[in-house]
Amino acid sequence: MRWERGRRSDNIEDRRGMRVGKKGLASGGIGAIVLTLVAMYFGVDPSVLLNQADKLSPTQTERHTTFSPEEERLKEFMSVVLADTEDVWGTLFRGSGQPYTQPKLVLFSGSVQSACGFAEAAMGPFYCPGDQKLYLDMRFFNDLAKRHDAPGDFAQAYVVAHEVGHHVQTLLGVSNQVNTARQRAGEAEGNALQVRMELQADCFAGVWAHHANKARQILEPGDTEEALAAAAGVGDDRLQKKARGYVVPESFTHGSSEQRMRWFSRGMQSGEPGQCDSFKATQL
Questions:
Q1: Which end of the chain, N or C, is more open, meaning fewer C-beta atoms within 10 Å of its C-beta?
Q2: What distance in Å separates the CA atoms of residue 95 and residue 104, rounded to the nearest whole number?
Q3: In a domain, 44, yes or no
Q4: Full DSSP string of the chain
Q5: What are phi and psi for residue 186, nearest 5 degrees?
Q6: 114 or 53: which carries more pLDDT confidence?
Q7: Which pLDDT belongs to residue 62?
Q8: pLDDT given for residue 173 in this prediction
Q9: With bands split at pLDDT 50, 70 and 90, how would you rate the model's confidence at 61?
Q10: pLDDT value, residue 163
Q11: Is 131 domain-assigned?
Q12: Which of 144, 3, 11, 17 is nearest to 74 (CA)?
């Protein structure tokens, strides 16, 4: 990916090396309920959060850490990708007569406190609509490359663009509508709605790639394949097969590998956000 000459975003909040202070949380209390709802909202197993509840705290201590040149270069890359999403979505929103509020990207190490609650790196990158921030432990990219067979800088860019896609959904009111509908739905129906939400974010990531390449020719040979590998690597069927040895489609919350690749490709080929309405699609 050609990124070195790209604009750098100022919307980076660097919390790497900062420790989340420990503070007790009574099991089964209001805090636990909030964590469970947050987990359900993001399609995460609530036990992932509840098992970490004793570490919850609204504060983070000052860091005393130095980072390698490779880590600093990766941070710089993240700022360029974020700036690219700002440029693309800012232009698209202006074209439809709407303002685009730029999200912040929070880089953290291990665990982090967000407006959506406490989270650990094991959850993977996520977007919190409560503070309109993306949260990312960059060590996730090691897992992306080694565990999910998706190395490469454009695979990393896809991850950021997907989370920005969730921000776009928040600005458009999609997130609120889906969350409200999920609260009234049963588990299977709620999971199905979440899948459509994730696939739309994949499509929005493809829309970004289309316009960024059209404007700045960022793509190099193999980049598209890197993004598709990342989309496939985090498909529910592949993750469940690795973890359980079998697949339960009714429990999908993000979509199959094939679906995720298809919707990313749909956005990338068309460049049209209107083509990303996964909620009206009869076939995903």
A1: C
A2: 22
A3: no
A4: ---TTSPPPS-EEEETTPPBPP----TTSHHHHHHHHHHHHTT--HHHHHTTGGG--S-BPPP-----HHHHHHHHHHHHHHHHHHHHHHHHHHHTT---PPPEEEEESSEEEETTEEEEGGG-SEEETTTTEEEE-TTHHHHHHHTSS--SHHHHHHHHHHHHHHHHHHHHTHHHHHHHHHHHS-HHHHHHHHHHHHHHHHHHHHHHHHHHHHHH----TTHHHHHHHHHHHT-HHHHHHHHHSS--GGG-SS--HHHHHHHHHHHHHH--GGGG-TTS-S--
A5: -75, 175
A6: 114
A7: 55
A8: 95
A9: low
A10: 97
A11: yes
A12: 3
> Residue 270 to residues 2, 144, 257: CA-CA distances in angstroms?
21, 26, 20
Question: Is position 25 within any domain?
Answer: no
Determine how β-strand 12-15 pairs with β-strand 117-120: unpaired
Which tokens go with 35? Answer: 């964590």
Number of domains making up the chain: 1
Which two tokens mark 9? 């975003």
Which residue bears the tokens 């700002």? 86
Asked, for residue 27, whether it belongs to a domain, the answer is: no
Domain that holds residue 170: 65-276
Residue showing tokens 């995720």: 260
Q: What percent of the chain has pLDDT over 70?
A: 85
Q: Tell me the C-alpha distance between 195 and 141, whole Å.
A: 23
Say if residues 121 and 137 touch (Cβ distance below 8 Å): yes
Angstrom CA distances, 260 to 67, 186, 205, 231, stand at: 34, 24, 11, 5
Kindly state the average pLDDT of the residues 192-201: 95
Q: Are 180 and 174 in contact (CB under 8 A)?
A: no
The pTM assigned to this predicted structure is: 0.84
State the helix-helix crossing angle for 187-216 and 174-184, rounded to 10 degrees.
170
